[in-house]
Amino acid sequence: VDPKLDLLQADGTSLPDSIALTYSSASNNFEVYSLNTAIHTNDKSKGVVVKLSASPVLSNIMKPNSQIPMKVTLGGETLNTTDTEFTVDTLNFGTSGVENVSSTQQLTIHADTQGTAPEAGNYQGIISLIMTQKT
Q1: What is the pTM of this model?
Q2: Cβ-based neighbour number of residue 58 at 10 Å
Q3: DSSP secondary structure letters along 35-68
Q4: Coil, helix or strand for 23?
Q5: Closest Cα to residue 56, out of 115, 107, 117, 121?
Q6: Tell me: the pLDDT tens digits for 21-55?
């Protein structure tokens, strides 16, 4: 818990604990999961830095070496394990009608098989976002 900063759904509710990615046999790929979010802060004069704690992959639970890379974006920016800065101007605090809440920032998650059918199995993965307030 960071008392200064939070990422919530655009309607102010918590992010889901888990999601299910939909696989399409017709395209041999996963559908992009999308969620409208907003950054809540107690200091709208500071930007935000976001990164992933680890490179995201889906792993076959019966064959952990069978993995599918995932791509995560926030507000149109691809996230990875290095810092991605969101400036105050990009976040547009207050445009949502609440002073310390950013404009809607779309969060997307996509497991990319690159058009090749993955090995059959039950896949799972964890995505952890690290978000800090710019100093």
Answers
A1: 0.91
A2: 22
A3: EEEEEEES-TTS-EEEEESS--EEEESSSTT-EE
A4: strand
A5: 107
A6: 999 989 888 999 999 999 999 999 999 999 999 99
